[in-house]
Specification:
This protein has one helix at residues 8-21, and strands spanning 29-47, 56-57, 63-64, 67-78, 82-89, 92-98, 103-105, 108-110, 115-135, 139-158, 161-181, 186-197, 200-212, 217-231, 236-251. The chain is mainly beta. The protein has a single domain (8-21, 29-251), classed as Beta Barrel (Lipocalin), CATH 2.40.128. The strands form two sheets. The chain has a ten-stranded antiparallel β-barrel with strand order 1-4-5-9-10-11-12-13-14-15. A two-stranded antiparallel sheet has the order 7-8. A hairpin with a 2-residue loop joins strand 10 (139-158) and strand 11. The protein is elongated, with a radius of gyration of 20 Å.
């Protein structure tokens, strides 16, 4: 959503492979973090091309479905302060409805009163390094850097034609994490990636209650907000997604 850097996917892949095959120190810990739940679309405003297309909303001008989502993060801890993780986070919304006005979208033209089906896909792949700079018995704070590959597409189909705009690009983000331990079993987690620039913005933030059943297994329940977009001659697109999250983290 912010800018595209040529060749970055290959660089991220090399960094990830180096981290995974490097010798494992005695203090190294692995984590598998899984999430699922319900994703609910907030605003989803689109104009493609950004300077000549028709602005419309997938969530207001059409009926957009809620969707069940999943995410998976694989992490490797170093010396209990440094971590390297890889996140897979696919997301797709489907919408449909009858247009109230003429629509120019991605080279296609759809007349008013045409019944259309639309798809919004926003798949995310992220490599994150984080340093936990503050650690006490009940509070742990960390900050880091995330390299995100955004694989996105928006399509509209109806009246015998289909138009689609796909985009794959690299987005640099700041990662942050705060864990507050309320008791031996329960805690509060704030975790996210975010950054804003003239080209656009992106925020993905989780606030959750955690419950540990053992030293190796922790469950979480909370709310995640995903928001952002870009505004340029090629695309105008801003979306907000609300997540109801249920997840588990296994450490080994």
């Amino acid at each position: 959503m912010i800018r595209v850097v040529t060749g970055t996917p290959a660089i991220l892949l090399v960094v990830l492979l180096v981290g995974l095959v490097a010798p494992v120190a005695a203090q190294t810990k692995w984590q598998v973090d899984l999430e699922s739940g319900l994703a609910i679309s907030g605003y989803n405003n689109v104009r493609i091309p950004g300077n000549t297309g028709t602005k419309f909303s997938l969530s207001r001008d059409l009926d957009i479905d809620q969707t069940v989502f999943w995410r998976a993060r694989f992490s490797r801890m170093f010396d209990d302060k440094h971590s390297l993780s890889f996140l897979i986070a696919p997301l797709t919304f489907n919408a449909e409805g009858r247009l109230e006005k003429d629509l120019k979208f991605a080279g296609g033209e759809f007349s008013a009163n045409t019944f259309v089906k639309a798809k919004y896909r926003f798949d995310s792949y992220r490599l994150t390094y984080r340093y936990d700079f503050y650690r006490r018995d009940r509070l742990r704070l960390g900050i880091g850097f995330t390299g995100k590959i955004r694989d996105a597409a928006i399509s509209v189909e109806g009246g015998g034609q289909k138009a689609e705009k796909a985009n794959t690009g690299f987005v640099p983000l700041i990662n942050f994490r705060a864990e507050w331990t309320i008791s031996s079993r329960f805690g509060v987690l704030l975790d996210g990636d975010a950054l804003a620039a003239p080209q656009g913005r992106a925020e993905d933030v989780l606030l959750a209650l955690t419950a540990s059943t053992s030293r190796n297994l922790q469950f979480k329940f909370g709310y995640r907000l995903l928001e952002g977009g870009a505004d340029n001659d090629e695309v105008y697109t801003f979306a907000l997604v609300n997540y109801l999250v249920l997840g588990a983290t296994w450490r080994f």
